[in-house]
Write a structure and sequence with these properties.
The complex is a heterodimer of chains A (423) and B (584). With 423 residues, chain A is α/β, with parallel strands linked by helices. Chain A contains eleven helices and 14 strands. Chains A and B meet through helix 1, helix 4, helix 6 and helix 7 of A and strand 6, helix 18, helix 22, helix 23 and helix 24 of B.
Chain lengths: 423, 584
């Protein structure tokens, strides 16, 4: 290239002004990131959050929260007393000391006993329908609370150690940001000065907008929204919320040095930063075989330590009153113990645990029969849990979404608030 | 009659419109001006007629034709799994013959030059269908991903008829790891699915993948949504109960060397192996017995399989393979799967859930394509040819007033009045960048290449670890993907400027800056830049030159470095665009 090809009179400032004109999207994002960097300490939490502890595979609530000792379905575990009114499994001793903060909904009764369908239903409140993709609760709560958090630069819906369920018709901009529990986000470093990045973004933005203008579909616009969010995140100080390994050793120890423990700890850090919805995944519950041994030596010690630490820590920091916690999986497991000392899928009668954000703790709502096969009191559903959590977060249950086809959908699919949580 | 003449008018006016638009967009964006052709292929003609029938019924008009560049890019991505190189693109767009498209389709399908890439692409697709993105990567896995891929590559490179593939995948025996004695890669489809949970995963996968029947919901209970009953599930399951995957250890250790899929006598869960039944539990807790009975009752002999568990009396899996191939669902499923591959949507949603409860959007067309593939000896390349030469596949992805309601995202069934925008698969991005950047030329052995690719892909895979083998990809247009495209190693390599690299070669070529810009746009987007795009790209050349001046005022500007830097910026920008990542 010869230098004579540079037009005379084209200075850097001139160039930059061109760039700035062409790149309305990038300048505010960059400016925002940098201005916040200077007073990151002043950032304060604003608004309420929800944490979903997702037990992927279908947890046997009959062995954890609603024991049936001495019956044919009761299994090997014994109940113990807790700091609340309800009894829970002997393998949850640390959680037993936190039960004054948590309520067990013992009369969950749902219909989906297939992993895919059950996950979708429990996370959206709708059964799968080929003609519409429903937004997950995380996407809905992020969408409903984002206006209260203009300072939030990282995604409002984070899922740790799992994929969660997508944003459906709300669009990809509300998709869960999936991270691993070690808090290392790949590919964050660009290794280039901001000025050059901005120039690149200007060129990119031009191609991007041209393509959107051609009316080829929603995906083109969603792509641009994701680019904006990515740029905001790359330059944000708030990314330190993910760096869970910076916590003191005793805190890490309290939560448990494993993926779920770190995930719960990260959830607390994200709540402090103002992220409205965090899902933390604990898998390995699909226990068709050898259930009691696996529960007592592997699953329950991990769950007990991390879940109790989360309640305790949030309470000590004064955050529990603004943070709703939900514990659930896609369904429960059969009261009947199968030939391989396992339990199979069972949705008709099982338990979910909720707490925090002003919901009553220390009680059990609803009742199953003596063998745990049926609910004997008013049955509750995924929608009812969501409705109750929305109420606790101050989200109006009159909120209605319109799917892109114009179909109105009420938040929480018209679920009803579980009144015992709010008396 | 009335309707037919209305169509002709509609189509004629539509073609007229497209000519007007073509004229106003003189230059590089050459739109196919030729009359709609079926290339003398009866299947293409029928596809076109059937798809148009839906347009008429819904009073919609198709979009204009895609540009030659768009169509060419689309075809390369869908058939061989990557974007065309600039040379390949130019060769196509300069061809002015009437059967320009038919020639390119034939070339990608049948020219030896493309056999390897064709086989690689469809091996990837079928591997993901058969064992998922994480199959074979689990600890102590009984699946060999390499074995699965080797089998598929051999099938696809030789264009083995689909019915033979299905039969082999359902009934294969042998060892799973390449190089082992009695190696048969086909076994990898089932090795991880037959031992656990009484083979329920194998049952569900065979029904779903080959026949589009979702039987797994009924395993535990009669799902009200689905008419395929619990009884059907366990009867189907009975076919797989002779089959076991035996572990093979590295001699003297507990390390798994591989597995061996065998058929053994099945004693049954009752008292007599002559009547080898399986038991299952009804919702009310009662036990019921099931024997091999095929799920599709329209197939002759569906209920006359012997009940003996002895392999010498009845090899149940071999029986199953024959029955699967006799079912019309199998024909419709492959038609539906391939259609969905090329259009992003099949005739049912999801594509592998067919049956009376989920009627297809184009029932006649689905049945027709199923019959045709059967009548053409299950030649998958012919199916590809019929689909890719259809009118629907030739349309632009730009929607118009007359078809904007045709958006499957709105919950409508697809009418195929325009091409639906969809994101490239992670594998397509990977291959495209390798080819676009010539990194493909320095590849190692096939196995090494695939291993490197699998490793790169693993960053996007999230396995659920439940008994249905569920998994998700984060290469789905969200932030982790955007971060990878911004800063990832793949993109850093693609934008490298060292001598011999793609950009390095362009920078050192005798192309003028404006030609270099054109070249990059064509390589990524299969089109030339607009004037605005060209001018912003020119500014990047200036900006990088200014950087060089800023570095050392006394020295002469290092024009080469400045030029290469600008090319990096432009290339990075187009690769990160929606237009690049979307198959459009």
């Amino acid at each position: 290239m010869k230098s004579s090809t540079v037009p005379r009179g084209m200075t850097r400032r001139h160039f930059m002004s061109h760039m700035a004109g062409a790149t309305a999207m990038t300048v505010p994002a960059l400016t925002l990131g940098h201005s916040l960097r200077s007073h990151a300490q002043e950032l304060k939490r604003n608004g309420k959050s929800a944490i979903m502890l997702w037990m992927s595979g279908g947890p046997p609530s009959i062995d954890i929260w609603d024991l049936k000792p001495g019956t044919i379905t009761g299994g090997e575990f014994r109940p113990i007393a807790t700091s609340g009114d309800e009894q829970i499994s002997e393998h949850m001793p640390m959680m037993a000391k936190q039960m004054h903060n948590a309520t067990i909904i013992r009369s969950m009764s749902t219909r989906e006993a297939d992993h895919g369908r059950g996950s979708y239903y429990m996370r959206t409140g709708y059964v799968p329908n080929p003609n519409v993709e429903h937004p997950s609760y995380g996407a809905v709560i992020a969408h409903q609370t984002i206006d209260q958090r203009p300072q939030l630069e990282i995604p409002p819906f984070v899922t740790v150690g799992g994929g969660s369920t997508g944003p459906g018709f709300l669009g990809m901009a509300w998709a869960p940001f999936a991270v691993n529990s070690n808090g290392q986000i790949r590919n964050l470093q660009m290794g280039m000065d901001d000025r050059r990045l901005m120039q690149r973004m200007a060129a990119l933005d031009l191609v991007e907008k041209g393509f959107i203008k051609e009316k080829r579909g929603q995906a083109a616009e969603d792509h641009q929204k994701i680019l904006r969010k990515t740029l905001a995140l790359m330059t944000s100080e708030q990314m330190k919320s993910f760096r869970v390994n910076e916590e003191p050793a005793e805190v890490l120890e309290r939560y448990g040095d494993n993926n779920f423990g770190k995930g719960c700890l990260m959830a607390r850090r994200l709540v402090e930063t103002g992220v409205p919805f965090i899902e933390v995944n604990l898998g390995g519950w699909d226990l068709h075989n050898d259930i009691f041994n696996t529960l007592s030596t592997q699953r329950l010690p991990v769950l007990d330590r991390a879940m109790s630490a989360l309640f305790e820590d949030l309470e000590q920091r004064g955050l529990l009153e603004d943070t709703a916690i939900m514990w659930m999986g896609e369904f429960g497991r059969t009261p009947r113990i199968n030939g391989n000392t396992g339990r199979d899928h069972w949705a008709r009668a099982w338990s979910v645990v909720v707490g925090g954000a002003g919901m009553n703790g220390g009680i059990a709502v609803g009742k199953t029969n003596s063998e745990g096969t049926q609910v004997e009191t008013e049955p509750y559903t995924s929608q009812d849990i969501m409705a109750s959590v929305c109420k606790s977060l101050g989200i109006s249950l009159e909120t209605t979404f319109t799917s892109r086809s114009g179909r109105p959908m009420k938040i929480a699919n018209s679920g009803k608030v579980i009144k015992e949580l709010f008396v | 009659m009335q309707l037919t003449s209305w169509t002709r008018q509609a189509i004629a006016s539509c073609l007229a419109l497209s000519v007007v638009i073509t004229v106003t967009q003189v230059g590089a964006q050459s739109r196919s001006r030729k009359k709609l052709s079926d290339y003398g292929i009866p299947q293409v003609k029928t596809v076109n007629t059937q798809v148009r029938k839906t347009w008429i019924a819904y009073q919609m008009l198709p979009s204009q034709a895609a540009t030659d560049g768009e169509w060419c890019r689309r075809l390369f991505l869908d058939v061989i799994g990557r974007v065309p190189s600039v040379i390949e693109l130019d060769e196509f767009t300069k061809d002015r013959s009437v059967d320009q498209k038919a020639k390119l389709v034939a070339k990608l399908l049948y020219d030896d030059k493309y056999t390897e890439e064709y086989a690689r692409n469809w091996t990837t697709i079928w591997t993901n269908v058969l064992i998922g993105r994480s199959g074979g990567t689990e600890r102590r896995s009984l699946t060999s991903r390499e074995g699965m891929q080797k089998y598929l590559r051999d099938c696809l490179a030789r264009n083995k008829p689909y019915d033979e593939m299905v039969s082999e995948l359902v009934s294969a025996t042998g060892t799973n790891t390449p190089g082992s004695e009695r190696f048969n890669g086909a076994v990898n489809f089932l090795t991880m699915k037959v031992n656990e949970e009484k083979g329920t995963q194998a049952t569900a996968d065979i029904a779903k993948i080959f026949m589009g029947l979702q039987v797994q919901c009924t395993q535990c209970h009669n799902h009200p949504f689905n008419e395929w009953k619990q009884q059907k599930f366990w009867e189907f399951n009975s076919f797989l109960r002779q089959t076991r995957a035996l572990r093979r250890f590295v001699p003297g250790t507990r390390e798994i060397a591989g597995s061996d899929l065998v058929d053994q006598d099945f004693p049954g869960e009752g008292t007599s192996p002559q009547e080898a039944e399986v038991y299952y539990e009804l919702r009310n807790g009662l036990l019921k017995a099931a024997y091999p009975v095929f799920v599709d009752e329209d197939v002759e002999g569906y209920a006359t399989i012997g009940r003996s568990g002895f392999v010498s009396d009845v090899n149940r899996r071999e029986q199953l393979a024959k029955l699967v191939l006799a079912s019309k669902y199998t024909d419709m499923m492959i038609a539906n799967r391939y259609w969905a591959h090329f259009f992003g949507y099949g005739f049912t949603k999801p594509i592998d859930d067919m049956g009376p409860h989920n009627p297809p959007s184009h029932p006649e067309l689905l049945t027709y394509l199923g019959e045709q593939i059967r009548d053409h000896s299950y030649n998958l390349k012919e199916l590809v040819r019929w689909i890719t030469l259809s009118e629907a596949y030739s349309l632009s992805s730009r929607s118009t007033k007359a078809n904007e309601k045709d958006d499957p995202l709105l919950g409508e069934t697809p009418k195929f009045t325009h091409f639906y925008l969809r994101q490239m698969r992670a594998e397509e991005l990977y291959e495209s960048l390798l080819v676009a950047t010539k990194a493909a030329e320095t590849r190692g052995s096939y196995e090494d290449q695939e291993r490197t690719k699998t490793q790169w892909l693993s960053q996007f895979v999230m396995a659920f670890g439940n008994d249905e083998g569920g998994e998700q990809t984060t290469f789905n247009g969200t932030i982790p993907q955007a971060l990878m495209m911004f800063n990832g190693e793949l993109i850093r390599n693609a934008t490298d400027i060292k001598p011999g690299s793609f950009l390095g070669e362009i920078a050192r070529s005798n192309m003028k800056q404006s030609q270099q810009i054109d070249y990059l746009f064509k390589a990524a987007l299969a089109r030339k830049p607009s004037s605005d795009e060209r001018s912003i790209a020119m500014k990047l050349f200036i900006a990088r030159a200014t950087d060089q001046v800023g570095k050392d005022r006394k020295k002469r500007v290092d024009a080469g470095a400045a030029n290469a830097g600008a090319l990096q910026d432009i290339w990075w920008a187009v690769l990160n665009s929606n237009e690049f990542i979307m198959n459009h």
